[in-house]
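Z., the sequence and structure:
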Amino acid sequence: MSKYEFVSISEPLDVGTRIHFDDCTNNAYFVDLPNSVVYRYDLKNKITTKAKVGNEPLGFMFPVAGSNNKFIASLTRKLVFVEWDGVSPEVSKIEPITEVETDMKDNRFNGGKIDPWGRLWAGTMGPADDKGETIPNRGALYSLEKGKLKKKLSNIGISNGLAWDTKNMKMYYVDTLQPKVFQYDISENGEISNEKVVFEFNSNGIDGKPDGLTIDKDGNLWVTAIFGSVIVKFNPNNGNMLDKIVFDTPQPTSIAFGGKNLDEMFVTTARIPVGNVIPPSPAGTTYIIKNTGTTGFKGDRYKE
C-alpha cells in the first residue's frame, strides 16, 4: 500500500494545470486551460469555486502582490491582469499587458510561474501538425518584471515546469518535448546561463514526458510525467531518482507544495484524448497528496 494519501479537490478537468498555493489567503488556484476556467480551492472551508475568464486558452492565473482579487494570467499569446473575487462565476475585469509572437498566430502561452523575486516566467508553444504532434522549436521562454518583457530562451517545444533554488541560485526548467530537466545559473536580476541537464527520463526508465516541476526544502526536485502516470522525486546534484508517486490516471500535469505546514502536494491532472480515446475517471481530477515526507515553498506573487 502506498504511503501517499490522495484527496480529490475538483471535478474532472480537460487540462487541469498551473496549480499555485497562496499562503496569504490559504487558497490554491489552478486552471482548466482549454476551457478558460480558473478554480480556487479554499483550504479552510474545503470549498472549490470557479469562474469563466474568457474564450481563449487560459495558460495560467497567479495572484498579484498587494491584492487578494488581482491576478496575472495568459490568454492565448496575451498577458493580462484579471480581477476576480474568488466566488463569482465570471471575472470582473481583464486588462491587457502585452502580447508576444504576433507573427505566429497559432502559438500560445503554456507554462508559467512566479519566481521568488516576483517576476513572471512564461513560455509559449507552437501548434500541432497534421498528425496531432506539437511542432518543435516554435516556442520561447519570457520573463516579465514590473511590466518589462524579456525573451530568455528560443526554439522551445512546449514550455512547462519551472523551479528555483535561491540558496544555490539555480533555475530548473522543462521543455516537454525533451525528456529531461534543465538547470541554469540565475542571478538576482533574472539573467540565466550555463545550461545543464540534471535528470534524464530515458536513462531512469520513466515513461511519458516531463511537465510540472517543484522543489522541496532539501533541494530535491519533483517532476510530473504526463502520459507516464507518475511524479518522480530526484536529486539534481547527481541525477539520482529518490522516489515515485504512482497515479491511477496517466496524465499528472502541474505540481506545488502547500497547506499549513507546506508539507502537502497539490497536483493537477488532465484527460487529453489519446488516439481519440479520453482517459476514464479519475482523469482530470485535482488532488492534495498527503504524507509527502518533506516540505516545500509557498507560491510567490507577481510584483507590479
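The mean pLDDT is 97. The two ends are 46 Å apart (CA to CA).

Let me know what you think.
H.
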